[in-house]
Structures are given as structure tokens and as C-alpha cells.
Automatic annotation (TrEMBL):
Domain of life the protein comes from: Bacteria
Lineage: Bacteria, Bacillati, Actinomycetota, Actinomycetes, Kitasatosporales
Record keywords: Hydrolase
GO molecular function, one term: hydrolase activity
Residue ranges constituting the AB hydrolase-1 domain according to the UniProt record: 46-150
Protein name: AB hydrolase-1 domain-containing protein
PANTHER family: EPOXIDE HYDROLASE (PTHR43329)
């Protein structure tokens, strides 16, 4: 009988992007809470686990990984469930389960505890993980996310705070976000690609060659001030599903 904590079998290979993120980074997958999570790590010492916000992935922390390793820490940035190189499971995206993903990764890394550093959504999950598994959280540093109780109170009492998160409420509507992405032959996706420096983005190249929504994208696009963009001249590569070295 299969252990429920063991992730289901994965494809023989996964496609990842070779993107700059600091010399010496080790990329690999770890199993935790019934799923598989991609991590980037560097250094030795007490564990510092870095949790990205939405819609980001491990690369958010590329500079901090190097700085923390130089300071004598084992710095690890993980892709949260459904993001980047981590498993995209059909369910399990509630805050409590995502927090268990984090504490499960700490255990899978063979560490007794970790300092959690979270930004945005990662900050919310850091607060949650510390409350649910306090013995596994040695220190807590959170940016751009107040304590969940204070945040929820502000949502109820401050209309401006609620309005600022209107995009989050939009994501909760069944089917509508997905339909927006596919409407007009993917016009919104094409616009998002145009807004960044995606002239050689693998996704852009594929859509151009298949006649998809980016078939008419310009060959060269200026860096938009609205987005930092992460997809530049970074070739895709195929790696074993057990490692992403």
C-alpha cells in the first residue's frame, strides 16, 4: 500500500529553465506532505527557509541566498505548491496545508528547525507555520504581510484594504480567471508576455511557431516599467525529476 505521505510517481523528466540565480546553487526536489517541492539551496549552517510571494517563485530570493550563505547559513528557497518546479496538485492550497508543506520541507531537509523568511503570501504561510508547528520555527521574519488576525481585521474595517486586494477576490471566482486567460485566443497572456523582456522566452518561441496568441508578438520588446519580468535569454533544459541540478 502506498504511503499517503509519498508523492505520486512523476514523469521521467521535467523541463526547467536555466536562469541566472547565483553561482553554486544546488537545485533539487524534496518530498513533503504528499507532494514534491523544488528547492534552490546554498551554504552550510543553521537552516533559513525562504518563502516567496504571489505570483513569484524561488528566484525572488536569488540575492539573499548568496548573502545568507556567505553569512554562515544554509539558505534554501522553495517553490510553493503549484508554483515553479513544485508539484501542481489538484487540491491542497488552503493556508493550513500549505503551511504543512513548509514544515514538511524542513523535516525532509533533515533539520530540527528553521528560520522562516516570508514575503507576501509566503509571509502569511510563515505566520501560519509558526502557529501550527512552533517547535519547527526557530525565528520568523515577514515582509509585506501583517499577522493574519490583524490583516483580517483590516479587511473588515478598512474599505481601502479590501479594495487593494480585489484581484485576490477575483481569483476565487470559479472558472472566470481561467476563461480570461484563454479568451480572444489568449490575448491577455500575449499582453503579459509583451509587457516583459520576453523576446527569447521559451514560451514565446513556442507560441510563435505554433500560431498561438503570441504569433504576432514583436521579435524585440522593451523592458516594461510595469513588470520586472523574469523570462529573458534563459534556455530550457531537461532534468531528472529527482534533481534539478
Amino acid at each position: 500500500m502506498t504511503d499517503p505521505a509519498t508523492p505520486a510517481a512523476q514523469p521521467a523528466s521535467v523541463v526547467r529553465l536555466d536562469i541566472p540565480g547565483g553561482a553554486g546553487l544546488i537545485h533539487r526536489d524534496v518530498a513533503a506532505n504528499g507532494a514534491r517541492f523544488h528547492i534552490a539551496e546554498l551554504g552550510d549552517g543553521p537552516l533559513v527557509l525562504l518563502l516567496h510571494g504571489f505570483p513569484q517563485f524561488w528566484w525572488t530570493w536569488r540575492h539573499q541566498l548568496t548573502a545568507l550563505a556567505d553569512a554562515g547559513f544554509r539558505a534554501v528557497a522553495m517553490d510553493l505548491r503549484g508554483v515553479g518546479g513544485s508539484d501542481r496538485t489538484p487540491r491542497g492550497y488552503d493556508p493550513a496545508n500549505l503551511a504543512l508543506d513548509i514544515t514538511g520541507v524542513i523535516r525532509s531537509l533533515g533539520e530540527p528547525d528553521a528560520a522562516l523568511v516570508g514575503h507576501d503570501l509566503g509571509g502569511y504561510l510563515a505566520w501560519t507555520a509558526a502557529a501550527m508547528r512552533p517547535k519547527l520555527v526557530r525565528r520568523l521574519a515577514v515582509a509585506s504581510m501583517p499577522h493574519p488576525r490583524r490583516w483580517r481585521s483590516a479587511l473588515v474595517s478598512d474599505a481601502r484594504q479590501s479594495a487593494a486586494l480585489s484581484h485576490i477576490w477575483g481569483f476565487q471566482r470559479p472558472w472566470i480567471p481561467e476563461r480570461r486567460l484563454t479568451a480572444d485566443d489568449g490575448a491577455l497572456v500575449a499582453e503579459l508576455i509583451r509587457s516583459g523582456p520576453g523576446r527569447t522566452c521559451p514560451t514565446t518561441r513556442r507560441w510563435r511557431t505554433t500560431g498561438g496568441p503570441c504569433a504576432s508578438c514583436p521579435r524585440r520588446t522593451a523592458r516594461s516599467s510595469r513588470t520586472a519580468g523574469w523570462c529573458g535569454r534563459w534556455p530550457a533544459r531537461t532534468a531528472s525529476s529527482s534533481t534539478a541540478g
